[in-house]
């Protein structure tokens, strides 16, 4: 019985990890620093998207500022029409806003994501 529970538990954790890091997406944390607002921090992450890859609906515990480094990335933000951004373009996503992103181009795409978030909370929360 214990062995079955371990196998099932491991499968659930593996499934959660698969949802947390979709195929074709790389996330490289570049820096994480406390800021002058108590209980908040700034985090910068480079996110890479293989052609056709996407990161599903999710939220962050604070604001996200996106700068597209390369490629053509489409962003879907709840309550708004999808927008496609190209290298050099920017986007602001308010705290707690449900959104998704995917590479709609034929080449690799990437963004620099800067988060101003609550310390100690998960950076990404997936939404069904």
From TrEMBL:
PANTHER family: CUPIN DOMAIN PROTEIN (AFU_ORTHOLOGUE AFUA_3G13620) (PTHR38599:SF1). It comes from Pendulispora rubella. This is Cupin domain-containing protein. Residues 46-107 form the Cupin type-2 domain. It comes from the Bacteria. Pfam families: Cupin_2.
